[in-house]
Model the fold of this input.
Amino acid sequence: MSRHIVCLTFDFDALSVFIAQGMTTPTPISRGEFGVVGAERIVALLKRHGIASTWFIPGHTLETYAEACRKVFDAGHEIGHHGWTHVSPAKLSREQEEAELERANESIRRLTGQYARGYRSPAWDLSAHTVDLLLKHGFLYDSSMMGHDYMPYRARQGDVIALAAPAIFGAETRLIEMPVSWTLDDYPHFEFARAGSAMLPGLRPASGVLENWYDDFDYMTRIMGWGVITYTCHPLVIGRGHRMLMLERLIEKLRARGAVFSTMEAAAREWAALRAA
Ligand SMILES: [Zn+2]
Done:
């Protein structure tokens, strides 16, 4: 029997993504504030469609917008770990990274009554210590890497990667990787950003992104008996009117094609149970 799972995931960065880049003047901060407007719209949309999703929320957002985060949790969504600040762990020492991990995990426990089972790195990059720290702190899964599109896998530890030598892969760990992709992330498609001479043009028509996102699901149904596809959205990006309509159309089209919507934790556990069977 075939089963095609969709994980809708929302990275509720709000102000933190701008602060982490040193953008603390009123307009970037207000761009982050719009995330709260978007979050409310998304929670209402998911309620209309009876969908449980996963929200990766930085500690900064949990403690700045406690009420908005409470509404997300009370609506039945999973709360995952997304750092305390929105700084990539690849830029931190092991001690700094662990302190961030613990601090944000306490913010999550205060909201949900338990520590996070899932982690998603800000900027989707991991340090050499991340997998080890996630295992130490009892995480079930990570969702930051890109080694597959439809199939979870075990995260490795201790790869030896050098410019002029074949890669030596480390051992698989218990940590389940729930892979992501930039093409299934709303941010690069839609968000216009400037930093010095670098520019992210974004602002693409939502209809084209909808077609790509639907086709990636459609392709999974053609080649996989069982699979998971993960979409990553940011309330401050997807919360704009034409994109909210796109998200609703996507949900309707996926459901008509047989999609099963799931939190990431449930999908990770289902994959682990299938592997064990
Ligand atoms: Zn983020």
